[in-house]
Amino acid sequence: MPAARQKLQPADYLTRLIALERQARRAESIQDLKFIMVNETHRLLPCYQAVLCEFRRSGKPVVTAVSGVVSVDANTPFALWISSFCRSILKKDPAHKTSLLNRADADAATAAGWQKWLPDYLLFCPLPDRSGQPAALLVLSREEPFSPQEKGLAELIAETYAHAWNALGGAYRRGLLPGKKARRRLVFAALALLLAGGIIRVPETVLAPAEIVPAAPMMITSPVRGQIKDILVKPYQMVKKGEVLFTLDDTEIVNQFALTEKNLEVLKADYLRAEQKAFHDPQSKGELEVYRLRVQEKKLELAYYRGELTRQQITAPQDGMTIFQDRNDWLGRPVGIGEKVMVLADPGLAEIEIHLPVDDAIALEPGARVRLFLRTDPLNPVSARIRRTSYQAEHSGPGGMFFTLKAAFSQQKKSCPRIGLQGTAKLYGESVPLFYYLFRKPLAAVRRNLGI
């Protein structure tokens, strides 16, 4: 934020210092304290920008908070330069004290980056841990020089920040490191765990979303091109064979049928006149055959439209349950020949459809064991066996790529789970070492990212 230079009385500085110290000591977490340091310090020490670097165990400073920024990426060019710059400054000042820096006093290489990323004047405020080593570093920058009085205020508020930082556990406490004997025990324990992980074998398992689907569904499609006029059944309704499921708009077919019927009557009358005329005029016998063929053509056309009228009503080819979404989604919707409108299924013949993400895929063969935990009854899993696996992954939009697996229930019961229920399936693969079972995903991530 821009530096706001105001002429304050000593009492004003003291009031702001006390308020900032109280705010820092009342911070409930490290994140709250970081926010206060980079966004509230300007009330006491006006500055253009505040940057907080936190020291890792390796001793490398990493930018973790910047004034006016919600989330900081430590790999941006600005953050990387700040980290390198702070490390070089601390090497030149072994005492790690609050100091004032000027770009004019920096070397050419440092001044080039300084001019690109920061104003000319900086105020360095190291925050030491209990051992005296820097745990964090607060850097204030602005276009005008900091006064010696502001440096003294910075030393006071830095002590408060360091105390709050250590109290909240932000410092790296070297005293908590285990001793030699403890480290030796940890090494032996780790070796024992590795040995056990290589000997003990457990079945490889994976979790995937699943749904109860019909085992032998019958697709109900539109036999002709048209427009849905009405859906006469409800979703998941039981229907009998021959019951009308839905109808298509037959207005055009009815008009064509009526027009063809009228034309047929006219042709029949013309044929009758030509037949009577043929008794007196031999030349009219040739026209009689033409009229007869035209009458026959219209009869065929009329039979075609009569058949089309019957095809406007789609009936159930067998008993079963209708499966489709909302009825209102189909009303007035145009459909093409062979377009699926709904599914007719036997509720007693169901199976499990499993969508296994590509990242979680394991070796699964037909017959592998499956346990389905339904959302409606998670305490009573349903047993099943893999019936079919897909060898090509499919795309599921935001969910990424997945393999589709079908599993049949171990025992087909009369009251199998209702079609449409969803849950989580646990799939059991071959037995693998415990170490591989525990670290399969980390190992896969390492191979995917590093290529080893």
Task: Walk me through this protein's architecture.
With 452 residues, the chain is an alpha+beta fold. It has four domains: 10-174, 2-Layer Sandwich (Beta-Lactamase); 217-247 and 312-343, OB fold (Dihydrolipoamide Acetyltransferase, E2P) (Beta Barrel), CATH 2.40.50.100; 250-309; 346-450, Elongation Factor Tu (Ef-tu), domain 3 (Beta Barrel), CATH 2.40.30.170. Helix content is 36%, strand content 28%. It is built from nine helices and 20 strands. The strands form four sheets. Strands 6-15-19-17-16-20 form a six-stranded antiparallel β-barrel. The protein has a five-stranded antiparallel beta sheet with strand order 2-1-5-4-3, sandwiched between helices. A hairpin with a 5-residue loop joins β4 (121-128) and β5. α1 (10-25) packs antiparallel against α2 (30-39). The longest helix is centred in the middle third of the chain and has 27 residues, at 251-277. Mean pLDDT is 83; it is low at 172-179.
Produce a short descriptive summary:
The chain has nine helices and 20 strands. The protein is an alpha+beta fold and 452 residues long.
